[in-house]
Amino acid sequence: MKTSRIVKQRSIVVLIVAAVLLELTVAVQYFSVRRSLTTQLREKAQDDLNETDQTEQLINQVECTVKDIMPDVRRLVMSGDEQRLEQLLSKTIRSVPEIVGIDFCYVSADEGQNRGVYYYEADTLGTIAKQPITFDYTQRSWYIKGLTSDNYWSEPYDSRYYEVLMSTCSSAVRDDNGKTIAVIGVDVPMDELSVLTTQIYDNLDHSLLPIIFIHLFGLLALAFIIQRSIHNEQRLQMVKTEKERIEGELNIAHGIQQAMLSKTFPPYPDRTDIDVYASLTPAHEVGGDFYDILIRDEKLFFCIGDVSGKGVPASLLMSVALSVYRMLITRETAPERILSALNDTMMRKNDYNMFITFFIGVLDLPTGRLRYSNAGHKAPVVLRPGEAPRILDIDSNLPVGAMTEWPYTAQETMLEPRTLLFLYTDGLTEAEDATHQLFESERMLAHLKYDTPDKVIAHMTEAVITFVGDTEQSDDLTMLAVDYTRQQVAPTLSSSLQLSNDVSETPRLASFVEEVCEKLGFSLADTIHINLAIEEAVVNVIKYAYPPSAPGRITVEASANSERLTFVITDEGQPFDPTTRGEVDTTLPAEERSIGGLGIHLIRRYMDSINYGRHHGHNILTLHKNINKTTKI
Asked: Which has the closest alpha carbon to 615: 448, 337, 307, 368?
């Protein structure tokens, strides 16, 4: 650790020295060039004051010369007398010392037939030379502008024939109809500008020598830095490789964790009595929030939880807790007993003293009865159309994993149709903006109103995003919305039968079931199956709800609407929930199967759903057969 700190300090010193040297190089270069250019510009400014009048006179003289010869040029071009045209242009070059050459270019109607000639003073004796223009002058700016302009002056450029900067004044030669038939360009040297450019380059050459030495010294320093960087890069590469391996494993863990959650919404699209939506946004690759949704025996089991801590430990504990919970709800319907069993299991596995806030709800879909139990989690919010949001009354209790054998309490309430429960983790109310202000419950309630579950969560998500802005998310954010949307359908049939606690009553039961099925038009096969299921259910009550030979009463109610046939079997015996019996493995030989369980197996097979509840000292078993699944109705 100490060696690493020393290496880091040395690297910082070297970088500072290199930075200072580079800055010094730039400073020297800047002041040197500035001094050179300032001196030259001062001298040139003075010369420009003296040359301004001469430059203006030169421009006027050249333009007047072109204007004077233009009538003769037009006449000679139109008559085709090229010899006299050549004499006229040569004479112009001799008579005006400022003009060193003339470009004369014809405009042809045929592509590729353009002709151009350049006339220039070949020697000091005034000899005028003639040279065909071999390059594509039609692409030059002086020619293009000259087609439509008179006295167009080009930007200064390097001449092919003179070692000075040149500028060309071009004009269009037009026929009697105003059509351009040729372009004449007069070349004028820019002597003063050429001298200034040469002086600037000379001054720059003189200022480069000290800069070169400083640059070389800087390069040596950079070479040393690069050598040290390569060494450090090798060490960093090893760290990067290890980091990428860990990130890869975290991504896999994230995928596994997300796969454990319900992601298909709506989860039960065929049902009209319930609508559910959820979202989970982890703060890191993996987190400790979770939720779950399951319908079993006409009961909706739903939960939401938040593991203390973050990262991998929280995600591992979340996976264990969710797996144990799902195993428990296959055989248990009381939420407080589910929490107690989960707490006992987690306490045996909780070596790191982590805990889980947990809320479990069990909603009886036919009746709207909600039983729930809480373990230190945030209270759900109840939403109804046209009503203000209200907090569900809950007992706090300790979180799961906090204390062995904690007595979790059970609570219940009745949900009216079109009642939505909004559940969330503290990642919502404790979301922070840039000033560390919390989102808090009051702001959450202000944004909540009854709507479909997906819209409720989408609206809340947008509100949180707007509140936090660009602030990095610090905690997992999970939301779950459960909407009880049951609609009453008017019954088309209603009948009941009172039975005593005796198997001899089964013939009366069979007649009752057959009569109901006949009224509804069920097929013979369906009638036999329904009869068998109802008989098994009643016999189970006789066997297990009442002591042997004890008097008792059993009520069988049958009702039907356009969607389903419902049988409700009620007794006053001791609590007995047949739905907790495990599934029978019918693939095993009879002698290898465990005793019991075949009756509930037949009921599940022949009926579409089964639901058990105990209310006011009565066992209530509800069996449903969907009419649209029958073969005749």
From this structure: 368
pLDDT at 594: 44
pLDDT of residue 225: 74
Give the Å distances, CA to CA, from 633 to 65, 488, 513, 566, 629.
110, 21, 16, 15, 8
- Is 628 in contact with 567 (CB distance < 8 Å)? no
Task: Kindly report, residue by residue over 115-163, the tens digit of the pLDDT.
Answer: 888 888 877 777 888 888 888 888 888 888 888 888 888 888 777 666 6
Looking at residue 229, its amino acid is S
Residue percentage of the chain with pLDDT more than 70: 77
Q: What is the pLDDT of residue 551?
A: 85
Contacts 24+ apart (CB under 8 A), 454-457: 454/265, 454/277, 454/481, 456/277, 456/383, 456/420, 456/422, 456/481, 457/277, 457/278, 457/279, 457/481
Long-range contacts of 513-522 (CB under 8 A, 24+ apart): 513/558, 516/558, 516/560, 516/565, 517/565, 519/493, 520/493, 520/560, 520/565, 520/627, 520/633, 521/632, 521/633, 522/565, 522/630, 522/632, 522/633
Whether omega before 453 lies within 30 degrees of 0, making that bond cis, reads no
Residues 162-200 as b/e (b if ≥16 CB within 10 A, e otherwise) read eebbbbbbbbbbbeeeeeebbbbbbbbbbebebebeeeb
- Across the range 65-85, mean pLDDT stands at 87
Q: Which amino acid is at 578?
A: P
Asked if the model's pLDDT at residue 340 lies above 50, the reply is yes
In terms of Cβ atoms closer than 10 Å to its own Cβ (0-12, 13-18, 19+), residue 379 is middle
Nearest-5° Cα angle at 380, 336 to 482 = 90
Q: 441 to each of 429, 444, 572, how far by Cα in Å?
A: 6, 5, 45
Greatest alpha-carbon pair distance for the chain in Å reads: 149
The whole-angstrom separation of Cα 473 and Cα 526 is 57
Q: Which residue has the tokens 């009961």?
A: 299
Residues 303-318: b if buried by 16+ CB within 10 A, e if exposed: bbbbbbbbebebbbbb
Backbone angles phi, psi at 597, to 5 degrees: 95, -15
**pLDDT above 80: residue 174:** yes
Q: What is the CA radius of gyration of the chain?
A: 49
Q: Please tell me the least confidently modeled range out of 101-115, 467-481, 514-528, 566-580.
A: 101-115
Quote the pLDDT of residue 592.
Answer: 43
What is the H or E stretch that residue 290 is in?
Answer: strand 289-296
Residue 517, Cβ neighbours under 10 Å: how many?
Answer: 24
Alpha-carbon distance values, 300 to 284, 418, 485, 498 (Å): 30, 15, 13, 30
